[in-house]
Amino acid sequence: MNKSFPETLNYSFLFLLIFSFKLQAQTVNKAYIDSLIITTQYLGADESKADSLILMGDLIEKKGKEIGYKKGFIYGYRFKGWAYDYKGQYDKAIAQFLMFLKVAKMEGFVDEEIMAYGDLGGLYSFMGRHEDAKKTFQLATNNAKFRKEQPRRLSTFYNNLGLTYRKLGLKDSALLMYQQSMKLKEEVKDTVGLLNLKTNLSVFLMEENKLAEAEKMIVENIVLCKKLDKKGDLWHNYLNYASLKSKQGKTKEAEEYYNRANQLANELDNDPFRNEIYEAQAAFYEKTGNFKKALEMQQAAKEVAEKILNQQTNEKISELRETFNAEEKERINKLLNAELTTKKTQQGFLIVGISMLLLLAGIIAFALQKNRKKNQQLAHQNDLITLQKDKLTELNEEKNSLISIVSHDLRSPFNTILMWAETLEANLEKSKEKAKESLAMIRKSALMGEEMVGNILDVEKMEINTHQLDLKEINLVELSQELIADFAPAASGKNIEIKFDSTQKEISHLTDQSLLRRALENLLSNALKFSHPDSEVDFSISKKEKQILFQIKDYGVGIPKEEQHKIFSKYGRTSASPTSDESSTGLGLSIVKRISEELGGEVWFTSEINKGSEFVFSLSI
Question: CA distances (Å), 528 to each of 51, 533, 535, 556, in order?
Fold first, then answer.
């Protein structure tokens, strides 16, 4: 869906807007419905306004049906489809989009029919239902009305169909769709769209090793980008051309275009461009054997990535601060208005009281009641502001913890890689054994850094709940035994015995095996890391009336009581350290907490310093 609008509409504004429509629209007509549609389209840019979209969708559908305005009321289906899409309720979203499509086709609304195909096909693609996406886009491309009335938008459907064929592994069909899209764009003289399509198509041709065709297309793109002064697109084509030259084995030409892309990224002052080009150059220099230069590029990419991360974090904090300041000003204005209103009301009471003394008692009682409600509202607003301040403080603490992890923990593997790279360079010809040792240590440090970055990304991904549950009936006892067997080598390395106990030989449950295993892996891994050598870890599973309990107990270092409150928080860390030469960022338990919520369960623990910890992961039956 292509929706863009500044994120300034909030819930209170929405309700005021609806209220004003009700006051101003003495009679519901087409203009009134159209104004609701335009307003809601703007609102649709903000995913946090999903509930408001449903309210507006219902209103548009209801009022449109009242006056028989079909071209108006069907937008209610579309907006509710957006809302359910944002909420992750994809079956409901699909049902709304299908209704939107059905009425549009039945009534011959060409523009709305195109919108429906776009919404529906896009959602299928996002869900990974590529066969359904293919059928949807094919229905659009086979529509003769679109070819006659909307060739520019039809070219977009061919492009989307090409992307879908690529995801299905049908590369020849994908190429045909791209070519058809290109033909339509040339017919309607869509120069910018043609440029974007050729840029993507050249990458596809390179992947298919059709280098001559790709080179011809990239050279044409570079000329057109310079003519149109499209520096962003020019950067992409420089990068693609450098990659193509590298594939052709033309090292000097590849390096020249990497440098051109780098210069253009600096000219545009675009950090994401810088990060991508540095990473591409690092891979290029590594491939050509220039490891020193590759390391410089990798370090530059790391610094830019940290800068981008800090900018994003600071922008979020600034956004929250601005929201807080705006609400504080609004609160003050409301207080002043309330005071002014009170004074006017009191003057009115005096005038009325001269002629109507008998009603004075009732008027005073009414005023007191009104003021009491206002005070309650102000108290509620103050509570909300306090909660926002606490949230801002929490976000700032998360930012500081994340910066600490990135700047301290990730520096260690990179410094180790640099040190062993220098050792490797010094011993390439002198000592093969020392060189092998250096390579092994570089590989180990790289894997450690990769694991840290992966954990950080996992924590962020879990925040947006994009995982689709894959529910299956599984034997939890068998899963637990397999997990223990997988960790046996790690336990053996510290001479730790993992004792397993189950109340039943088989405990079956409908759940997502992948998520559950990941949570238990984190808990068992932590138990081993924080256990002393020559000790034991108890792993048990039991089934009660309404719960299945996994209990993992170690007899290791334990967690300080004053730090236990932050054990499941995002980027929260404690002073407890693994007992051997092991690494821990403290991110795993945040992931476990999110998984327990995803699976409809709970996780809790008890711990005591130098006596160990016991974690319990529950599933509701």
Answer: 45, 9, 10, 9
Q: Which structural domains are found in the chain, ordered by start?
A: 1-127 (1.25.40), 314-463 (no CATH), 471-620 (3.30.565.10)
Sheet of 547-554, strands arranged across: 497-502, 536-543, 547-554, 612-620, 602-608
Token pair for residue 443? 């590989």
Contacting residues for 293 by C-beta, under 8 A, at least 6 apart: 281, 285
Model pTM score = 0.43
**Cα-atom radius of gyration of the chain, to the nearest Å?**
31
Q: Cα angle vertex 389, ends 387, 393, to 5°?
A: 115
Report the C-alpha dihedral over residues 252, 258, 264, 266, rounded to 10 degrees. -110
Q: Taking a C-beta distance cutoff of 8 angstroms, is the pair 164, 134 a contact?
A: yes
Q: How many CB atoms lie within 10 A of CB 341?
A: 12
**198: how many CB neighbours lie within 10 A of its CB?**
22
* Mean pLDDT lowest among 197-201, 393-397, 591-595: 393-397
Q: What is the pLDDT of residues 270-311, one digit of tens each?
A: 888 888 889 988 888 888 888 888 888 888 888 888 887 777
Instruction: State how far the Cα of 100 lies from the Cα of 108, in Å rounded to an integer.
Output: 12
Q: Are the beta carbons of 610 and 536 closer than 8 angstroms?
A: no
Considering only 307-316, 351-360, 548-557, which range has the smallest mean pLDDT?
A: 351-360
